[in-house]
Design a protein that fits this description.
Elements lengths: L4 E7 L7 H17 L2 E7 L1 H10 L7 E4 L8 H13 L4 E4 L1 H13 L20 E3 L8 E6 L4 H6 L3 E5 L4 E3 L4 H6 L3 E6 L4 E5 L6 E4 L14 H31 L5
Parallel strand pairs: 1-2, 1-3, 3-4, 4-11
Antiparallel strand pairs: 5-8, 6-7, 6-9, 9-10, 10-11
Length: 259
């Protein structure tokens, strides 16, 4: 059996002090050995992401994962990576800070929310889209309910799951109707009804979670969301390779033989 290797951009400011970052090698090994999902991972600093997006290099990856670790060194870089994944239909996952910035990018570039801001990096913003949570979720575990028929439900394999958090910021409730009207689906909530998952209908795979699926267990059994991203990346890589092969064969068929 031929295994397709997919290239994934891990966008974030890598640090040994961020537990999510230290989990990534374990998850990549487990995905390859347990599930046959082979990912060639490239760490991309947020300071470099904007240039990679502008050059078109980021769009050539098979998946983009914007990782926890905010405030990022370069917020614009994180937002640029999310925009490329959204517009170029590259499989995308945003967790914790990645979730927050996925909503921020959508608010700015799709919904046209004037002055959309993240209170962590702009504490003086009058009406932030991402605001301090009423209660910190650092070190918290809680149940999340996925909406029936959503990508989140199909990935989790159940309506209800227990998830881990490490964050102090989340979406400001007053902006949620605008995000939904703009086409974003808020597909998972905690037991108090607060938004914890968002997805983009019509996109091959676009999922963002305020919780951190990469922290599930000890890292030897990837969370279903991490596995689903990997599967989407491998499928994307296979489609791209097939398209390139067809293009190459068509070109060969049209090129007259020498002699």
């Amino acid at each position: 059996m031929i295994t397709t290797t997919a290239r994934i951009a891990l966008v974030g400011d890598r640090s040994p002090h961020v537990k999510s970052h230290t989990r990534i090698p374990l998850l990549l090994d487990a995905l390859a050995s347990r599930d046959g999902l082979v990912l060639d991972a490239y760490w991309l600093r947020t300071a470099d992401a904007e240039a990679e997006a502008a050059s078109g290099a980021l769009a050539r990856f098979d998946a983009v994962w914007v990782l926890p670790g905010s405030p990022y060194v370069d917020e614009a870089g994180a937002l640029a990576a999310i925009r490329v994944a959204r517009e170029e239909r590259v499989p995308f996952l945003g967790t914790c800070g990645g979730f927050q910035h996925a909503l921020l990018e959508y608010a700015r570039n799709v919904c046209g929310i004037s002055g959309a801001a993240h209170a962590e990096t702009d504490p003086d913003a009058e009406d932030p889209v991402i605001a301090p949570l009423a209660c910190s979720l650092v070190g918290h575990e809680g149940h999340v309910r996925a909406e029936p028929g959503s990508l989140a439900e199909s990935v989790l394999g159940a309506e209800r799951s227990l998830e881990r958090y490490h964050c102090d910021y989340g979406p400001a409730p007053r902006h949620l109707p605008t995000l939904e009207t703009g086409g974003l689906r808020l597909s998972g909530h905690d037991e108090d009804g607060q938004v914890r998952i968002a997805e983009l209908p019509g996109h091959p795979f676009f999922l963002a979670t305020l919780f951190q699926p990469e922290l599930a267990g000890d890292g030897t059994v990837p969370h279903p969301i991490v596995k689903a991203l990997a599967a989407a990346a491998v499928s994307h890589a296979a489609r791209v390779h097939t398209a390139r092969d067809h293009t190459a064969r068509d070109h060969t068929a049209r090129t007259p033989a020498a002699g």
